[in-house]
Specification:
heterodimer; A: 71% helix; B: mainly alpha; ABC transporter involved in vitamin B12 uptake, BtuC
Chain lengths: 319, 355
């Protein structure tokens, strides 16, 4: 086994990039859940964002346009969910599942002509002087713009939810929609906006996956990232900064297992008499998700204090 | 213009008509989709929805496709009624196939009528145990069963892939990641001469009857419905919600596992990584299309099997992409949930203010 190929600095750089799709999807879903809506369709919105972004970037040659269209694709799908759950009062769990199944199908259909095509490169921001500082230059100043924007987005969401009036209204809608309604706040309109925002974020995360992380289009390429993003929101106890932590944790697990596979760890295990296949390492992000969920949920009081009280409940105006 | 008025009672005809409405809306939306893809919408709809019904081979193939869907959906429907969301049936299906298939491979070339029942039991146990993981974590640690059961789908699929490229690989298979072909004693008997219709189809039909009786005539079915509709009332009536959660998840896992081992011992005949084809997810649509009612699920399973068979024909004869069929199925679930509004609310003209 050659562990020396695992360089801590590139490990961290890889971790930040691997965490970015999760970060976008999870911070968007956090806002949606704070408004009292549970959208389980993150996986579907992500993959639609991935395919829309990739197709746009390849056809136009502009990754920027790809990210914009990816976000729009996610938002459009989210609005379908919003229309059904907010106006037609359908069950949020079932509609979210439908969104995922539908999104996976649509993405496969749209993406068919783009399989095996290469996307235009997304440039890394190179700052003169700063990026050239040893160690810190690579750790802090070696990313593309989307990564920086993702971290800024976490800060912005924190500020919006905790320091602004509209953010307070959004949280009020999520805690008690009847009370918010009787104060005159447009519950459904606020929720629709939150849902669209969540969709756009998931779409962006998906586009980052297909344009930067992989960078390629393959059917079903999100491979559960949307579901992991949902778990991150629970892990974060609906707090924006902990979403960043959660995304980095899962990004770290993904990168670590990929690096272990590349380092010859498996053949070393084989040589000491433990024949382990690569599939077992690939399982780790999913297993870690389960373990984290269990640890976080086990403390019932802490888990429930931050959860929005109206989460997943339909709102109807009566009288 | 209009407003919604909650219904006190849902008329039976509305419950029955709304799924048909959803299927109709899906056909129209699907027609538009196919027109956008540059295909003749009427011809495509005919090939997918009508042509298989007139062809004897397609009719029996429908039964074979419908059997796993119906088995899985029956199990899921009990959970959904009680508000327990097992969406990892795909993983339980894989673990059932794997556990049952491993028994079949352990007794490879051993003859005996006891082998198939043993494999079926192992399949049910495999699926059941896999579903008991989210059940235990939910009951003991309050972990969300939706996320846990779904994560376990990926784990199960990877595990299957590891097993067929490792311990269960065909020793004479040139290193292909698949198991040996199961021998005669480990294959499901055919019930209709000259077709591929196997015993599993009969078992699915029996399961429908049993589920209908349990749901409408047995205290268990009553408790399930009570827990879903009025959890507080259920608690006062002495329904143990935790125990019911475990039983319902275990039951749906066992049925999904049974569907898995039937697929291995029926049409496929060996373990291979491509075993999971999404039945566990499509079964969610089947459960809702059938209104969580066993007889409805049987009909819904047939409709969904029709789109699979017709979709395959359309792929070959009209060049419709395979993904179009999953879009179709997704659309169906959307429309279904949308028309559900009509069962719970009455749409009435809005009252003018001051009247």
């Amino acid at each position: 086994m050659d562990l020396s190929v695992i360089d801590p600095i590139s490990l961290f750089v890889g971790l930040v990039a691997a965490a970015t799709p999760l970060l976008y999807a999870a911070i968007g879903e956090l806002v949606v859940e704070k408004s009292g809506v549970l959208n389980l369709g993150v996986e579907g919105m992500m993959i639609v964002g991935a395919v829309c972004g990739f197709a746009t970037a390849v056809t136009t040659g502009s990754p920027l346009l790809g990210f914009v269209v990816g976000a729009m694709g996610g938002a459009v799908l989210a609005l379908v969910f919003g229309g059904m759950t907010q106006y037609l009062l359908s069950n949020q769990v079932a509609t979210g599942l439908a969104l995922t199944l539908f999104g996976l199908g649509v993405a496969a259909l749209v993406g068919q002509p783009f399989t095996g095509v290469k996307s235009p490169r997304v440039a890394v921001v190179h700052l003169p002087v700063l990026s050239d500082i040893p160690v810190i230059g690579r750790l802090v100043f070696s990313y593309d713009l989307v990564i920086y924007l993702g971290i800024a987005l976490v800060a912005a969401v924190w500020f919006f939810l905790n320091r602004t009036r509209p953010g307070l209204v959004l949280r009020a809608v999520g805690e008690n929609h009847d009370a918010a309604h009787s104060l005159g706040y447009p519950v459904i309109r606020i929720r629709m906006m939150a849902i669209a925002f969540g969709g756009a974020c998931a779409g962006l995360g998906g586009a980052y996956l297909s344009l930067v992380r992989v960078p390629q289009w393959t059917e079903g390429m999100t491979a559960g990232a949307g579901w992991i993003a949902l778990a991150i929101v629970v892990f974060a106890a609906w707090k924006p900064w902990r979403v960043l932590l959660g995304a980095w944790l899962f990004g770290g697990v993904t990168i670590l297992q990929l690096n272990l596979q590349a380092s010859g760890f498996l053949s070393w295990l084989q040589s000491v008499g433990i024949p382990l296949q690569a599939q077992y390492l690939s399982m780790t992000p999913y297993l870690v998700t389960i373990i984290v969920l269990v640890v976080i949920s086990a403390d019932r009081t802490r888990a429930s204090v931050n959860a929005p009280a109206s989460l997943g409940k339909s709102f109807t105006q009566t009288g | 213009m209009f407003r919604l008025e909650p219904r006190a009672v849902t008329p039976v005809w509305i419950t029955a008509v709304t799924p048909l409405l959803a299927v109709l809306a899906t056909m129209i939306a699907g027609g538009i989709l196919f027109a956008l893809l540059g295909k003749d919408p009427f011809e495509t709809i005919r090939v997918i929805f009508v042509a298989p019904l007139g062809d004897p081979y397609s009719r029996t193939e429908m039964l074979i496709k419908a059997a796993p869907l119906v088995l899985i959906a029956l199990g899921l429907s009990f959970g959904f009624r009680a508000g327990i969301w097992n969406i990892g049936a795909e993983g339980q299906y894989v673990m059932g196939a794997l556990a049952g298939g491993a028994v079949g491979l352990a007794f490879w070339n051993v003859e005996g009528a006891w082998l198939l029942p043993l494999m079926a039991l192992a399949g049910m146990a495999g699926g059941c145990l896999w579903a008991l993981i989210p059940a235990f974590l939910k009951v003991r640690f309050n972990a969300n069963e939706i996320l846990v059961s779904l994560m376990l789908v990926y784990v199960a699929t990877l595990f299957l892939s590891a097993m067929v490229s490792g311990p269960l690989r065909d020793p004479a298979g040139f290193n292909f990641p698949q198991s040996r072909l199961l021998h005669e004693s480990a294959r499901l008997p055919i019930v209709l001469e000259g077709t591929r219709v196997h015993v599993g189809v009969l078992v699915a039909l029996i399961a429908v009857v049993v589920a209908q009786i349990v749901l409408t005539r047995h205290l268990f079915g009553f408790n399930v419905r009570l827990l879903g509709q009025a959890p507080r009332a259920a608690a006062f009536a002495g329904v143990n919600a935790k125990r019911l959660t475990v039983v319902l998840l275990g039951l749906s896992g066992a049925l999904a596992g049974l569907a898995g081992i039937f697929e291995v011992t029926g049409p496929i005949g060996q373990l291979q990584p491509s075993l999971p084809v999404g039945y566990g997810f499509t079964a969610i649509i089947v459960a809702f299309l059938g209104r969580l009612n066993p007889v409805g699920i049987l009909l819904a399973g047939m409709v969904m099997a029709l789109t699979y068979i017709g979709g395959e024909t359309a792929q070959f004869s009209l060049g419709i992409p395979a993904a179009a069929i999953s879009v179709f199925q997704g659309l169906l679930l959307f429309f279904l949930l949308a028309v559900d509004l009509l069962t719970r609310y009455r749409v009435v003209p809005a009252k003018r203010s001051g009247v």
